[in-house]
Amino acid sequence: MEFLVASSIGLLTMCGTYLLLRGRTFPVVIGLALISYAVNVFLFAMGRLTINMPPILRDGVTEYTDPLPQALVLTAIVISFGMTALIVVLSIRAYLEIGNDHVDGRPVGAPSEAGDKN
Amino acid sequence: MGDWIVVPIVLPAVMAALIVLAVRHDIVLQRVFSITATVALVGVTLSLVVFANGHDPEMYALSDWPAPFGIVLVLDRLSAMMVFLTSLLGLGVVLFASSEWDQRGKHFHALFQFQLMGVNGAFLTGDVFNLFVFFEVLLIASYGLMLHGAGAERLKAGMQYVVINLTGSALFLLGVGMIYSVTGTLNMADLAIQVANVAPGDAALLRAGALVLLLVFCVKAALVPIHFWLPGTYANAPAPVAALFAIMTKVGAYSVLRVYSLAFGDMAGDMSWLAQPYLLPAALITLVLGMTGVLAAKRLNGLIAFSVIGSMGTLLTAIALFTPESIAAGLYYLLHSTFSAAALFLIADLVVSRRGQYGDSLHTAPTFHQSGFMAVLFFAGAIAMAGMPPLSGFLGKLQILDAARGSDAMVWIWAIILVTSLMCIIGFGRAGSVLFWKSASVEGEITVEGAKWPVLPIVAACGMLSGLVALTAFAGPITDYLHGVAEQVFNTSGYIQAVLGENALALLGR
């Protein structure tokens, strides 16, 4: 199970990083979503992987799973969900205002405007 | 005083909800509520500063859950000073925005109060995961503020700002996860104890987690090589928002100072002063790069944004030395650079709004309304940012140079700070002479619609400048106070005992 979880986190992060570095907003949004999934699973695994154990410590229970990462990951999921919604809306808005969906606002091959900025 | 610690977080939170729910249709009421709340916040945080000055660190346990199981807020001299700085800056910004900026989009005041809540929370919290949550609160509010009154350029810069910060948040969680997996705690005081007791086999993982966290804080503090989001964001943000963002980079610097002096400081054994070897070179390169950007900038707002990067480099150089003298000097510079960056962004907006179609491009243009008065304001802001006497930037840099005297890297620090100060003077001198001096000989006059003497914006800009004057005039007492702050930062056992009780230190070295 450790191998499965670790390699899936690695795969998600790898795909997410690749997509994050793309030039259009849609792959970037998907990349961010994949990275946030990878992070959530990673965070969940930080309390060690145990199966079929209660997450709450009671008298007489010696085997249990750490409840804190579950609480942390719940917070992280809520935040990353909200953020994904925000960035989707923002990308659509940027597409409508700028006229294309490139993260730096100009299509590939268009003349650089870096010279007259800042 | 105990319960008052939570007020700087609860007051803006309640106010933001009230503004968005009850008075969202009435801009005058929004302004009244927002300004009143910010004035009240200044009063509360001032009393916190006074209280913290005479006492040991004090803890507030949320819902009364005992540390390290619950989340705690900790008031010490450092956090009290930072929330006071935030509220003063917030007051200037809200006054500036209340003349006209807050009508260019919706919900400015609600987002502004949420931003204050997030920043205050980040300064007060004593828990690493809670720090993440408050980072998110302040970021979410800042996304809204950054895009306030949108426009293509601002949307483009805003998109990049959101993406970089979401990536930063993912890294923050990775770092937090790694640290938790080794130490089993996220309470900063408890972390300090656990880090000292960590098993040798786990040390590498803990070190990796701590360095990932350092990377995240450096994204916030705009340190090279992850500074690239700042110029676009600050130059394209609405002016009052850019001024408010002057405190956001300081949140990163504060987090570096707090976490890496408390948990990875003197007591951490092998991991003592973990951040230092990475932070100092990065800070010096940031300083060079920022001031080079000041020389190269072709727009006024870009120029100021690059000078903010440079000032973050100076600040983190002082912090990276991690000695009581350098921390005190760095904190003085922190106060100074917050006010000077905010003042410059506000003054730049006053200038830009008067230049009409010429905007903030650094080209000669016909003279504009109140050109002489604006030149005086800009000159004061520029000499403050460049670190020239008589304003506080000079004293700040002098203290940092003095604190660096015993360091191995003294030659580098002195050379780079002095040379980059010259670059900053040249950059601002050139911008000022193009905007005011050379433009004075151009035929004609620019006329723009609007109030001839907008009272609130000018009061706000002058207020920021008078903050600098006060820092200079009361440099003696303020420096004494900051030495007390630095002393408390280094007295980590006082902080740990405040959070975990008197007997906590017995757990060390068990």
UniProtKB/TrEMBL annotation, chain A:
Record's keyword terms, sorted: Cell membrane, Membrane, Transmembrane, Transmembrane helix, Ubiquinone
InterPro entries: CPA3_antiporter_subunitC (IPR050601), NUOK/Mnh_C1-like (IPR039428)
Domain of life where this protein originates: Bacteria
One CC-aspect GO term: plasma membrane
Compartments, record wording: Cell membrane
Sequence intervals crossing the membrane: 6-21, 28-51, 71-96
Membrane topology value: Multi-pass membrane protein
Principal location class: membrane
PANTHER family assigned: ANTIPORTER SUBUNIT MNHC2-RELATED
Family note: Belongs to the CPA3 antiporters (TC 2.A.63) subunit C family.
UniProt-listed NCBIfam families: PRK08600.1 (NF006372), PRK09094.1 (NF006573)
Protein name: NADH-ubiquinone oxidoreductase subunit 4L
Source organism per UniProt: Thalassospira profundimaris
Automatic annotation (TrEMBL), chain B:
Chief location bin: membrane
GO biological process, one term: ATP synthesis coupled electron transport
Listed GO CC annotations: plasma membrane
Membrane topology: Multi-pass membrane protein
Annotated GO MF terms: NADH dehydrogenase (ubiquinone) activity
Chain segments annotated as coiled-coil in the UniProt record: none
UniProt keywords, alphabetically: Cell membrane, Membrane, Transmembrane, Transmembrane helix
Domain NADH:quinone oxidoreductase/Mrp antiporter transmembrane: 126-422
Record-linked Pfam families: Proton_antipo_M
Subcellular location: Cell membrane; Membrane
InterPro entries, sorted: CPA3_Na-H_Antiporter_D, NADH_UbQ_OxRdtase, ND/Mrp_TM
Membrane spanning residue stretches: 6-23, 32-51, 71-96, 108-125, 131-150, 162-183, 203-230, 237-257, 277-296, 303-324, 330-352, 373-391, 411-432, 453-475
Family stated for the protein in its record: Belongs to the CPA3 antiporters (TC 2.A.63) subunit D family.
Name of protein: Cation:proton antiporter
Organism: Thalassospira profundimaris
